[in-house]
Amino acid sequence: MAQTKKTKSAKTKSAKKAPAKTANKAKDIKYVYDFGKKTDGDAKLRELLGGKGANLAEMARIGLPVPPGFTISTEVCTHYYANKRTYPKVLDSQIRKSVELMEKQLGKKLGDLKTPLLLSVRSGARDSMPGMMDTILNLGLNDETVEALATSSGNARFAWDCYRRFIQMYGDVVMGVQKLPSEDHDPFEEIIEKFKAEIFPKQKGEVDDSKISVTQMKELVNRFKILVKKRTGKDFPTCPWEQLEGSVGAVFGSWMNDRAIVYRRKYGIPAAWGTAVNVQAMVFGNTGKKSGSGVAFTRDPASGEKVLYGEFLTDAQGEDVVAGVRTPRPVAQLKKVLPNPFKELVAVQKTLEKHFKDMQDFEFTIEEEKLYMLQTRNGKRTGLAAVRIAVEMVKERLIDWKTAINRVPADQLDQVLAPVFDAAAQKAADTLCKGLPAGPGAASGRVCLNAERAVEAAKSGKVLLVRQETSPEDLRGMIAAEGILTARGGVSSHAALVARQMGKVCVCGAAALEIDYKARTVKVGKKTFKEGDFMSINGTNGEVFGGELKTAPSEIIQVLVDKKLSPKKSRAYQNFSKLMKWCEQATKMDVRTNADSPTQVANAVAFGASGIGLCRTEHMFFEGNRIDAMRQMILADDEKNRRTALKKLLPFQRKDFTGIFKALEGRPATIRLLDPPLHEFLPHDQNSQRDLAKKLGVSLASVKRRVEDLHEFNPMLGHRGCRLGISYSEITEMQTQAIIEAALAVQESGIEVKPEIMVPLVGFAKELELQVEVIHATAKKVFAAKGKKVKYLVGTMIEIPRAALVADEIAKTAQFFSFGTNDLTQTTLGMSRDDSGSFLPNYTEMDVVSANPFASVDQTGVGQLMEIAVKKGKSSRRGIKLGICGEHGGDPSSVVFCHNIGLNYVSCSPFRVPTARLAAAQAAVS
Ligand code: ADP
Ligand code: MG
Ligand code: MG
Question: Percent of the chain at pLDDT above 90?
Fold first, then answer.
């Protein structure tokens, strides 16, 4: 109690003192910024004037035809909420002054009975923000001014149309006359529909608004007013000043409505930013055939082509274009319809780009053939367009190459590599459900529910592998399939990971799919697809379709991977390679790739990878009949039998490494020794176990027993990584032998080789020491046997917190570190990636985590360990090579982080290489 009293009295004290001070100060504060003939603001005042207001001022400054007006600054919004929803005292007089200025410029007056000034009132935060108040047009009209407008324009229908619109917008937005939960339609629209049905009983509502006469329009206005009175108990305000005050209040009020709050929370926009209010003289696109309204882009936002792109409607006010009531026409048609304004638009297109130096998205109105600009902002664009626009703007000398690098959002770049659906085909298709977009692009194929049948079916056509979830056993099927669709798992599930590495289209976690492996059917709602039926997926947005949809590979893939298209013939490729060249000029950090096969290496190299950052040897064991030898090795109950089986594997591994070294053409390759727990390689169902027993000539019981022996309660933390190599050093010996022999053979053929042998899951320096001993001893043996030598490095993954903490000890033996951020995240967070799907989405929603830590490095937690490891590692080995090979290596914000902590390279899946290169370049230039 005492405390409350204290604060209270403290408050009143300061409140007593404050007014004198703030009143003095407030007089000096400028809250209202004019634009028009006199312009106070400019584009740099975005924080104060909001994006819309700042750019309106800027356009006025550079002489574009902007109707005059003023912006009430975001500081008023802040004041409004800091002072119980009241305004600064001086605001009213500042607004009146600015209205007077407009009146003088235009020779019109607010509320005048001869030439009334009409206004638009619009909200405008720093960035455009859905959830904010809708625009109010035609403010200033009442029963008298509407007649004045009718007389002065000589167009009564137009005047009453404006009035009708104004009551509708103001009634909705300011007075809150909106659809009730019990209603199906907006009440104003309901009245219009009913009215149309009355006056044109035969046409069933299919009436163009232009057919409504003046008298009928008046009646509509009357009914609108009655509705407002009935719903609110208040008369529609007739005083223009009162209307203005109401509208400004509604804009500020909307800053704290639920929709806006939810949006801000989602995108991390602070409430303290506030919104501005833009008040502007109306210009009219609805006076007849020589008027109109539209939106346009200075370049095509889908393709990036330098053409005026957009749409317009004649005889319409702005909101008609986006409302979808009438179908707008392509802006190019203006050339015929209204040639003079079109010419002006083309000139505006040039001026805007020359000045803003970026593609603009703008809104315009034409009143009696005269063009007016109402808004401009940097336009949103696809990845493809972003690349083209950046490159062409450098050519046009609008921007320099460093700016161009920053113009393409790195996470949009893989869009340019993805196959695409034929636009018309997608439009016509029926969407069944949605999953998570895990591998961008488009794929269509016959449904196959297991890997084997997928491989078979792929021989005679396109296949879509549809699974509950995927595992390493499905790899062959995944390779054969056009795309992968799973019902479970997130964007970092096995399916997603492999899909990205192979550049496959993938949608995962499409929970609406009911997959019946026995009946071989996929049910979605009421539809049932049998194996062999066609389904299609869009991995860019997660949509799943029934039936076959036409696709085409991206041109860049056709040039670099398929080599079916000449580079000269593809503009998309040329733009892309230009951008990549600039990235190379800028980048300090290398980008390597995670690859296990010569094809993957070749692809990655074509995309500009400077080597392999992670070659997972275990993936090689699933190919062909190698798995038999692998299983024999695992089932062996003593070293002798294990060595016999390993001998069979040796030539396979040697061949693989030879292929990889060749494809690398002298680039380095980090090869990780066997990592996963052995039970992952064994069959778990009765039938496959019986098959295996037969093949190996052992009893089913013994296979079963060994599988049971290998069972672990928590395999991720179990007998895996270097722990395997320490228990069974013969595995490490075999792998080292294969690597060194392959290296020697390739070196012999005249190609340089740079093997880097990597020991996984090290937590103790001693673990690494033990493995390094085996590696060096084996290498020595091979050198002696062949009478030749090759240089190689030995290093370790840092993927356990302990390894990061004792990195100085480990670096005494390790010649390089590679951060295995997948496991480092799992072990640091104590969170299983594959089980996180059940709670992580909730965590994101509730702001526990700001992003998925398995997709983007948790910089404050995991990142700290990385920094410790970098520092400690360098302290005992100054020139230690540092890289990252987790999935995070392809995530733009993680790449920037890696740049900042001083890594030498990042490594990611082949098709992510361009994205990582771009992100690395962006980190370097900014
Ligand atoms: P949004 O942010 O939703 O685009 P705006 O504030 O840009 O909303 O307004 C929507 C539309 O209202 C504009 O595109 C324009 O056509 C129309 N409009 C706004 N101000 C005026 C004005 N002064 N004269 C005529 N139309 C206007
Ligand atoms: Mg707009
Ligand atoms: Mg690992």
Answer: 72
**Which of 852, 853, 916, 887 is CA-nearest to residue 501?**
887
Closest CA to 602 of 546, 640, 562: 562
Q: Which atom of ligand 1 is nearest to the CA of 123?
A: 6
| Nearest-CA residue for atom 7 of ligand 1 | 375
Q: Using an 8 Å Cβ cutoff, are 724 and 761 in contact? A: no
Alpha-carbon distance 657 to 617, whole Å? 9
Nearest CA to ligand 1 atom 20: 120
CA distance 528 to 516: 10
CA 395 to ligand 2 center in whole angstroms = 30
Distance CA 105, CA 442 (A): 56
Q: Where are the beta strands (DSSP E) in 292-451?
A: 292-297, 309-314, 329-330, 360-367, 370-378, 420-421, 431-434, 436-439, 442-448
What's the pLDDT at 151? 96
* Contact between 857 and 897 (Cβ < 8 Å): yes
Query: Tokens at residue 340, please?
Result: 């003079």
- Transcribe 861-900 into DSSP letters: THHHHHHHHHHHHHHHSTT-EEEE-SGGGG-HHHHHHHHH
Query: 438, 465 in Cβ contact below 8 A?
Result: no
CB atoms under 10 Å from CB of 429, counted, come to 20
pLDDT in tens, 169-214: 999 999 999 988 888 788 998 998 889 888 888 766 556 677 788 9
**pLDDT tens profile 869-894:** 999 999 999 999 999 998 899 999 99
Ligand 2 ion: nearby residues, β-carbon < 5 Å:
363, 375
Instruction: Tell the residue nearest (CA) to atom 8 of ligand 1.
Output: 135
- List, in order, residues 6 or more apart from 485 with CB less than 8 Å away: 435, 464, 465, 466, 467, 506, 507, 508, 510, 513, 535, 537, 544
Q: Which residues are near ligand 1 (CB < 6 Å)?
A: 67, 120, 122, 128, 135, 137, 280-283, 293, 317-319, 363, 365, 374-375
**Rounded distance from Cα 272 to ligand 2 centre (Å):** 23
CA distance 220 to 218: 5
Ligand nearest to the CA of 293: 1
Mutate to test the pocket of ligand 1, among 279, 374, 377 (most ligand atoms within 8 A of CB): 374
Tokens of 904: 């030498």
Measured in Å, residue 52 CA sits from the centre of ligand 1 at 10
- Cα separation, 914 vs 908, in Å, equals 10
| 67, 281 contact by CB (below 8 A) | yes
Name the residue with the closest Cα to ligand 1, atom 18: 318
Active site residues: 494, 885
Tokens at 148, concatenated = 């004045």
Short-list 320, 374, 326, 328, CA closest to 352? 374
Could you tell me the distance, in angstroms and rounded to a whole number, from the CA of residue 169 to the centre of ligand 1?
12
Rounded to the nearest angstrom, the distance between the alpha carbon of 866 and the centre of ligand 3 is: 15
Residues with Cβ within 8 Å of 296's Cβ and at least 6 positions away in sequence, in order, are: 308, 309, 310, 311, 312, 331, 345, 349, 361, 362, 364
Q: Which ligand is nearest to the CA of 118?
A: 1
Q: How far is the CA of 375 from the centre of ligand 2 (A)?
A: 6
- Calculate ∠ Cα 753-758-760, nearest 5°: 160
HSE of 249, CA atoms in CB hemisphere, 13 A: 15
- Residue of minimum CA distance from atom 12 in ligand 1: 318
Number of residues assigned to the chain: 926
- What whole-number distance in Å separates Cα of residue 464 and Cα of residue 873? 46
The CA distances from residue 486 to 190, 497, 823, 866, in Å, are 44, 13, 23, 33
Tens digits of residue pLDDT in 632-690: 999 888 899 999 999 999 999 999 999 999 999 999 999 999 999 998 899 888 998 99
Among 263, 291, 365, which residue has the most ligand 1 atoms within 8 Å of its CB, making it the best to mutate?
365
